[in-house]
Amino acid sequence: MYNVKKLTKDLYWVGANDRRIALFESVYPVPTGVSYNSYLLLDEKTVLLDTVDKSVNHQFMENVEHVLAGKPLDYLVINHMEPDHCAEIPTIIAKYPNIKIVCNLKIQTMIKQFFDFEMPEDRYIIVKEGDTLNTGKHTLTFVFAPMVHWPEVMVTYDTTDKILFSADAFGAFGAIDGNIFADEVDYDLRYMDEARRYYTNIVGKYGPQVQALLKKAAGLEINMICPLHGYVWRKDIAKFIEKYDKWSSYTPEINSVLIAYASVYGGTQNAAEILAGKLSELEVKDIKMYDVSTVHPSYIVADAFKYSHIVFASTTYNNGIFVNMENLLHDIVAHNLQNRKIAIIENGSWAPVAGKLMKSLVEQLKNTEIFESNLCFKSALKADKYTELENLATEIVKSMKGE
Ligand code: FEO
Q: For residues 369 and 12, what is the distance between their CA atoms, to the nearest angstrom?
């Protein structure tokens, strides 16, 4: 049975939720599922904006057919060719054989890479930056957004109703729970962390490209943002754009300390716990700790984008960094994190080397300061190192105060 949501008098959400998916992109846990958003505009001409993942194809097709109610589908606008959005292009083409595909040249190339269907060239409308498509009452403008988060990406702006179809930008992990608008849920409480985890892990590497898109968006009056995942925005848009500005400029959201530790038998955890306690005694608020062995790195990457100061504490393992910590650090470097203050703690029962190796990874982060004191201990923290740990807490707090 169809399950559609009316967004304006002539615009409908025709997407669907996948609540059973274990790993989004085969990498990221999504315990609250994910939505694949597609939008259908009923104007003199009818326009479908993007499709969905193949996992929800049945619901999607029922939705499209219901909203069209027998009308032909004139245009399919494709903003992004990642298969979580483009998988149902062949189904749409087969069902509506006279449809025209509206896309840019890179998208057309990717269509031919992914699919085998035959489509005469004159049924493609290839757009360039700033081109428009009039559908009757509405005029759609196409704005290119390369690397947000693939090279072919564009966003579509409905100049009539001031609606931005933003592709992956402004999306979030998490299925849509009945409501469709972000202002209908307690977004800060329930979704902001997942929006951050989605942004930082999926698009985080491409901050400069997101900044470029934000600059283009700043020139548009926007009444509604329709992303490809998560809730639709019609209120507090500026607040969410401000978050994107922070994330994409690698600006910390809070002046506090994130501690990520790797511990096999508890010695390194003990040092991390004591450090956290010392920071608290020094009145640091909102300290966050993660055991890298029990938490998926995507959660820690997200908080690394949030916190100003990060402590990585790891035991030495196979004469290297403990494997989960090594993966996390590679992930953080790959996501291009910048502008942080980082402290390193190393442990090792006979030949501690994790610290030097961790330092060589985090040194790759731009505009990032690494605390000089590299606390090193063997097996378990003892009295001789306790003062060093206290000093590290003091140094971190001084840095937080800009001293
Ligand atoms: Fe949701 Fe880049 O695809």
A: 48
